[in-house]
Every structure is written in structure tokens, then in C-alpha cells.
Design a protein that fits this description.
Length: 134
């Protein structure tokens, strides 16, 4: 599957139309580099989840405030590795993208690129990224 994804990127690049980045990096003083979606909205992880367990502990009430993030095709900029990303299927049937085994979420009160209002909330929610994820 990984080779197929890489081959697809090479074929697309050869015809001149590179796919749009679906996960990118942003930088903020005090946080360093963190993950954002294609629109620049921050992605989070929670210490309530167990990395690499294949499950999310953010249930029905939680996802009202912390909606799961999912992208069907992972396209990354330089500086991120495809091997750090995966997909889990939640108990509610939704697919969710993971980073280093941690399920990724949005925070409902982040409205624009650069917002990181959920970072540090309840000492359990943090922006995900190379400089912030355990």
C-alpha cells in the first residue's frame, strides 16, 4: 500500500500536477512546529488516548468539542514522514488519522489558522507535531 501511494505521487509529479498537501506544519513561538490540516487549522492529540492502541478514548460527548480528524489521502510537505501516519476506525465507525500512533483531533474553538486555543486544556490536550508529541 505504501509503495502504491508513493508510486501515485511519482506519477502525478511526472505529469506536472502535484497533489495538494493534506497535512502540513505550522510554527508558533512557545510551541515549535505542529501539525495543521490543508486549511492551516491545528491538529491535537490527548493524553487520554493510548498511542498505537488502534482506539480513541474520545467518545460521544467528547467529539462534540474535539472532532476527529481524517484525511483519505495523506500528502505531506518535506520534514514529515509518511511512516508516522496511519488510520484507525473508531467504535462509532468513523475513520481517524493518527500521528505516531496518537489519534488526531480538531478543537471546536479554533476558527482560523494560527489558533491553538485547545493546547494545554485540562492538562490533557496538546497540538500534535514533531516538537510537541511524545
Amino acid at each position: 500500500m505504501i509503495l502504491l501511494a508513493l508510486a501515485s505521487l511519482v506519477v502525478v509529479s511526472m505529469v506536472g500536477a502535484a497533489p495538494a498537501i493534506t497535512i502540513d506544519l505550522a510554527t508558533k513561538e512557545g510551541l515549535g512546529r505542529y501539525l495543521v490540516d490543508q486549511d492551516g487549522i491545528a491538529l491535537y492529540y490527548t493524553t487520554g488516548d493510548v498511542p498505537r492502541s488502534g482506539a480513541s478514548n474520545c467518545g460521544e460527548t467528547c467529539i462534540v468539542y474535539w472532532p476527529p480528524f481524517h484525511t483519505g489521502q495523506i500528502v505531506l510537505p518535506m520534514g514529515l514522514s509518511f511512516f508516522d501516519f496511519g488510520t484507525i476506525y473508531r467504535e462509532d465507525g468513523l475513520a481517524q488519522t493518527t500521528y505516531k500512533g496518537w489519534p488526531l483531533y480538531y478543537y471546536i474553538n479554533d476558527y482560523k489558522p494560527g489558533d491553538t486555543r485547545g493546547h494545554g486544556m485540562f492538562d490533557a490536550w496538546f497540538v500534535a507535531g514533531p516538537d510537541t508529541t511524545p
